[in-house]
Amino acid sequence: MNRFKGFFKKSNIKPAFISGLIVAIPIGITIFTLQFIFRFVDNIFGRYFREFLPFYIPGIGIISTFFIILVLGAFINNWLGRKFYEKIEKRMSKLPLLGSLYTVSRQIVEIISSSRRKEFQKVIYLQYPTEGIWTLGFVTGQSISDDGVRIYNVFVPTTPNPTSGYMVFIPHDDAVDTPYTIEEGLKILISGGMLAPPRLPFPVRKKQMVNKAESLPGENDKSENES
Known about the structure:
Elements: H1 2-7, H2 10-52, H3 60-76, H4 79-93, H5 98-112, H6 114-117, E1 122-127, E2 134-144, E3 150-157, E4 165-171, E5 176-177, H7 182-190, H8 219-226
Antiparallel strand pairs: 1-2, 1-5, 2-3, 3-4
Helix pairs in contact: 2-3
């Protein structure tokens, strides 16, 4: 009882309420997002089933959507479906505005898919395009230079479209390893850094500050001439 009495003290209410918000808000946002996705997907085809079924079956739209996507994937994987998809893709890519949106969306899905992730070995930080500017890179292979230095073959994607980028070769010692998985690195990249962790593993060189008490070169000569 004494423990509960101390909990309701005025000094303890504010930090307890803030701690509760920190826990409740992410959980609430996650639940709300899941509910929105469930209702959205369930309503794509579920509304057609509800017109014929005598009673409502929760999730019938999701099941039907999953089945249709599965059939679509099976159709695309054969020769006829692949040719048909190539024609549709060419027409979609030529649409004004929507064509660019379609192309970027398709490329992002491709690079996040398991077949593309296997091309990346790990995620690193490197200084690129110049010293002092850090960026995220994906190691695609390793080599040895002519003088025997271990080299990382690194793909540096652009944001938010990670399918384009630059291929660079850097010494192994110039790379900073990260604990990120390939999926986590791609999320940080596609989000434009919004999903980056609060603490980064690389050092940043501090700029040298000019001491106000110290006079700049030439100032002493100028003051002597004025006197």
